[in-house]
What we know:
Blueprint: E1 6-10, H1 14-18, H2 20-32, E2 36-39, H3 55-72, E3 76-78, H4 81-96, H5 98-108, E4 121-123, H6 124-132, H7 134-140, E5 149-153, H8 175-182, E6 186-187, H9 207-222, E7 228-230, H10 233-250, E8 258-260, H11 261-268, H12 286-289
Parallel strand pairs: 1-2, 1-3, 3-4, 5-6, 5-7, 7-8
Helix pairs in contact: 2-11, 3-4, 4-5, 6-7, 9-10
Amino acid sequence: MSQTNRCLIFLGCAIPYRVSSYEISSRKILSHFGVELVEMPEFNCCGLPLDPINHKTMLLLAAKNLAHAEQTGLNILTLCTGCAGTLKKVNTLLKEDSTLRQQINNQLKEANLEFKGTTETIHLVQFLKENIGIDKIKTAVTNPLTNLKVAEHSGCHLLRPKQHHTFDNPENPQTLKTLIKATGATCLEYINETQCCGAPSVGINDKIPLQLTKNKLDNIQNVQAQALITVCPYCHIVYDTNEHRIEKLYNKTYNIPILHYPQLLGLALGLKPEELALNDLKINPTKLLTHVNNENLHQ
């Protein structure tokens, strides 16, 4: 991935309709670092939900997105870990398999498109680490969040499968932790940090993500974390939506806000909560914000 700070933003399906707070806060912090986000001229689903049910359709959908991006000459920046993983995987598969590439291109001809393999895809977390840089982020922090103790959830797709994600260790991920520490906040370790949120099983058995969420929140509460930081829209939805349900079902109280990492970083950069769409969170972050020494909170 080139070090340019001009790239296409790929929002995918869920973020514009269900997690707009992730998009809003991401655009804010990227703008703060001078990143120019160019809107995708046209895009469709990345294809992830269809794999492995209909592998060929997944390949075609992803390839179509990549071909559109290639026409602009820009690389793709995604906020969704699933989209990043799918686009990276298909990009690699089509580059390495000339027969498959020809088959896909024969279908893309109907839309006047061709996959050439000239663009790359990067997730927000990797972009912040490699294109912006941890040192630059630390330097930009004007409101260090030294009073906050949080936990992180990197999710499954950010670093898996590992042959397509080489910027961190999927068994012991450190990038998100490092990015959190760059804000001045303490990142606490807890049991089963890499456990899946359960989102893929929602359509089959919604009790599974409820139990997995409860396990996660119990472990986070045990280390006295004040918030959980996510970088995946689906992980965020699962935790943010289910926390109140679990409190009622199990007669428990967590009061653990689920923040997108860009919201945490935005606070450290001195941005106002409303600029970061913190009011959109289902778990009220008001108590959390009392620990943030930010003059903008009181203006």
